[in-house]
Amino acid sequence: MQGDAFYSFLELVSGSLGFSVTKETKKEDVGKYFNSLGEKIGFAIRRVGESSSKSIRRC
Question: Which locations, inside or outside the cell, does it occupy (predicted)?
């Protein structure tokens, strides 16, 4: 029952995040995907911060 809720939720949000989930998808694979996504978001945030710092110094 708990697994069904897990996969139902993931099916709702996975399409918008570019991740396809089926009942055969392992929770470990889902975790790896979201960890990777978090790293990419963190990288993007750092780059935006660096860019904004440079533009502030130019003003």
Answer: Cell outer membrane
Cα–Cα distance between 15 and 49 in angstroms, integer?
A: 29
Q: Please give the Cα distance from 30 to 13 (Å, whole number).
A: 12
> Which structural domain, as residue segments, surrounds residue 28?
2-58
Please name the residues in contact with 43: beta carbons below 8 A apart, sequence gap of 6 or more: none
More confident: 55 or 42? 42
- What does pTM read for this prediction? 0.61
For the chain, how big is the Rg over CA atoms in Å?
Answer: 17
Residue 21 φ/ψ, nearest 5 degrees: -125, 135
